[in-house]
Specification:
flat; about 0% strand; transmembrane; membrane; single chain; about 100 residues
Length: about 100
């Protein structure tokens, strides 16, 4: 009977925390690697939604055209190439470092 208590204690105090830790790490890993939604597809879906609202009469033509202009601006901003990061200066060569005297 004592062996059963030891095995149950080992299960809950050693095995279960390790399994939960591994599951938590895998969950974090997979959550970080989820693909980001395509911005062009999102903008196209938004434009289709605006057109549908306009055809149903939920949006006035003026407001719908303003929203479409904003969506076109977002497409252009997303299509522009990203600015490259400025290059960092190269580290100084070892010969340029000051030498330190270690003794008299």
């Amino acid at each position: 009977m004592e062996t059963l208590f030891v095995l149950i204690g080992f299960l809950f105090c050693v095995v279960l925390p390790i399994v939960l830790l591994v599951v938590f790490i895998r969950w974090l890993w997979r959550r970080g690697s989820t693909p980001v939604a395509d911005q062009a597809a999102l903008l196209a879906a938004m434009e289709a939604l605006v057109l549908r609202w306009q055809s149903e009469g939920a949006l006035s033509p003026d407001i719908a055209s303003e929203i479409r202009i904003l969506l076109i601006g977002e497409r252009k901003r997303g299509a522009a190439p990203a600015q490259p990061a400025p290059a960092q200066a190269a580290p100084a060569p070892l010969s340029a470092l000051a030498t330190v005297a270690l003794g008299p």
